[in-house]
Design brief:
This protein is of the alpha+beta class. The protein contains one helix and eight strands.
Length: 137
Amino acid sequence: MLDRIAEFFIFGLVPLVVGVLAVPEITNAGEKTIAGEVTYRERIALPPDAVLMVELADISLADRPPAVIAKRRIAPAGQVPIRFEIGFDPKAIEQGRIYTLQARIFVGERLLFIPDRRHLIDPLDAKPVTVVVIRAD
């Protein structure tokens, strides 16, 4: 009897659990992805609890705050370059609008790194993006 139970776990349950854990994150069929990396020039390491926040935003209207289309939080961020992928609905992208990719690195509530310029992008273009950030001090 114990042999059957052990056999069930080894050949039945364990492969099932491993298979479920190995399945990539489910995405919508119509979802597009922007891939890239965030880096900085300073020669310092990030703390182990650093968090990267990347946002795709519409900045077309100067009198309003940016409209965030999609965002991705990567925790822990690791060390630079920090790779990211951010998924979004392509139906949210309108012709003639201006889109930017914003990246910030935090530790807790403290902002460590911010972009020094706008990173304008065409969200429907599949080219990888590199966002350079600078110290926020």
